[in-house]
Design goal:
With 480 residues, the chain is an alpha/beta fold. The chain has three domains: 3-280, Spore Coat Polysaccharide Biosynthesis Protein SpsA, Chain A; 296-359, no CATH class; 370-474, Jelly Rolls (Sandwich). It is built from eleven helices and 30 strands. The chain has a six-stranded antiparallel β-sheet, with no helix packed on it. Strand 21 (376-383) and strand 22 form a beta hairpin. The longest helix has 16 residues, at 125-140. It is globular and about 75 Å long. The protein starts with a strand and ends in a 6-residue tail after the last strand.
């Protein structure tokens, strides 16, 4: 038996807007160090010396929309995986884990699944691994193990677990799960010593999870089994059947199973391991300020930032200089297309701004100006009524689809690198400072045959410049 990491990489992180967007959520961002949160999660069990070996590749469950950047980030941090499960739509964490359990059982083994959301921060990796090792015996014995964070403040943003006495294997019995409390109740929980924060971290045998979900939510189990039975493989990705998966109820691991295990009569125990590892789910900007390294005035600065006479303030500069004077307990987040300014104690309400953006159909709710693609990225640096200017970067070996536009023409200017251009029936190379023109309605393709990134400027002109004006005839990456 081995320990199989399962990374749940769904969610949109709306309270971390404008840095986190629907199409580029917080787990894909480097918020607290050089690694993105996904990469840090994938590396979290590096060097584990506990009683079980760790599987060579994690199982990752993510949204189909950001599958390529997920695979690329895993590859770049040395955690490449050929077991990336794609959800055609969000159905919360219980169906995601059910799909992962079915995949884990495919080879005839029954590993321990270590279930980790991709958007957590853990500052003490050694303490994290010790807590995981403590829970292994209970999980091997058929229990569903969760990990409760030892609270260090009266937090109102987390759910809590009330615990009973310590069991022989070092775990604690679960007395009850309780919802997010008000401040007075949270203070009482902290004083009692009987409560832990509910972390969303779990461990159990794959077969045990399936037994539990079938007992408590047979409709979900059946829908996930049908979806997985109809799955197809595409490079690193496992695509489940969309129609079947959409029939699954949406529910969390906590609501679907964990809370029901308490006094359920089912022969599966639910236990908790206390953990003190500098954990945070970084649910809002204030939470990031709490876990980040601070200066002598308790400020957190990321990027090109100058602060004068400021305290308790977080400033995140993404694309330009941001200067602050006389700020106390304020959050400022700058991106190329949006700026957030908020009182630090009100950052939970940022999700209300995102809701308004969605209601107004503003693109800033879902996408950044810089958009990642499997072949590289593009940044829309200027636009007007009938034109748009993009900075395009194609990674070595990258190849855009063979395509055509009905409503726009394009001018391409190579800034650095070498471009292989297909235009109609002809193909030719362009080098630095050379350019070409793609008329409206002409089939074309852009490739990077070199060993260095290809950087170019694209000027689009026409009556309609939307990304949906693309007719793809051939695509290396399987996009329709």
């Amino acid at each position: 038996m081995n320990l199989q990491p399962v990374i749940l990489s769904g969610g949109s992180g709306t309270r971390l807007w404008p840095l986190s967007r629907e199409q580029h959520p917080k787990q894909l961002l480097a918020l607290n160090g050089e690694l993105t949160m996904l990469q840090a999660t994938a590396r979290r069990m590096d060097g584990f010396s506990g009683r079980l070996p760790v599987a060579a590749e994690p199982i990752v469950v993510c949204n189909e929309e950001y599958r390529f950047i997920t695979a690329e980030q895993l590859r770049c941090c040395g955690c490449e995986s050929h077991r990336i499960l794609l959800e055609p739509a969000g159905r919360n964490t219980a169906p995601a884990l059910t799909l992962a359990a079915l995949l884990a059982l495919d080879d005839g083994s029954d590993p321990l699944l270590l279930v980790m959301p991709a958007d957590h921060v853990v500052r003490d990796g050694a303490a994290f691994q010790r807590a995981i090792d403590t829970g292994v015996s209970a999980a091997q014995g058929g229990a569903v193990v969760t990990f409760g964070i030892v609270p260090d403040q009266p937090e109102t943003g987390y759910g809590y677990i009330r615990v009973d006495g310590e069991l022989a294997d070092g775990t604690r019995a679960i007395a009850a799960f309780v919802e997010k409390p008000d401040l007075e109740t949270a203070e009482a929980y902290l004083a009692s010593g009987e409560y832990l924060w509910n972390s969303g971290l779990f461990m159990m045998r794959a077969s045990v999870w399936l037994k539990a979900i079938e007992a408590f939510n047979s409709d979900m189990a059946a829908a996930c089994r049908r979806a997985y039975a109809g799955a197809t493989r595409d490079a690193d990705f496992v695509r489940v059947d969309k129609v079947a998966f959409l029939e699954s109820p949406s529910d969390s691991i906590d609501y679907a199973v964990m809370e029901r295990l308490v006094d359920s009569g089912l022969d599966i125990a639910g236990v908790v391991v206390p953990m003190a590892a500098g954990w945070s789910d970084v649910g809002a900007w204030e939470a990031l300020w709490q876990v980040a390294e601070k200066d002598d005035d308790t400020n957190v600065a990321h990027g090109d930032v100058i602060l004068e006479d400021c305290s308790g303030t977080l400033v995140f500069a993404d694309s330009r200089l941001v200067a602050g004077v006389g700020l106390d307990n304020v959050v400022v987040v700058e991106t190329p297309d949006a700026v957030l300014v908020a009182r630090k104690d009100r950052t939970q309400d940022v999700k209300k701004i995102v809701a308004r953006l969605k209601a107004d159909q503003r693109t800033q709710a879902s996408a950044h100006r810089k958009v990642h693609r499997p072949w590289g990225n593009y940044d829309s640096i200027d636009n007007g009524a009938r034109f748009q200017v993009k900075r395009i970067v194609v990674k070595p070996g990258g190849r855009l689809s063979l395509q055509m536009h009905h409503h726009r023409a394009e001018h391409w200017i190579v800034v650095s690198g070498t471009a292989m251009v297909t235009r109609g029936e002809e193909s030719f190379l362009l080098s630095e400072n050379q350019s070409t023109y793609i008329p409206l309605g002409v089939t074309h393709r852009l490739e990077n045959p070199g060993k260095l990134p290809l950087e170019m400027i694209e000027v689009q002109s026409g009556s309609y410049l939307g990304e949906d004006d693309i007719v793809r005839f051939e695509d290396t990456y399987g996009r329709g």
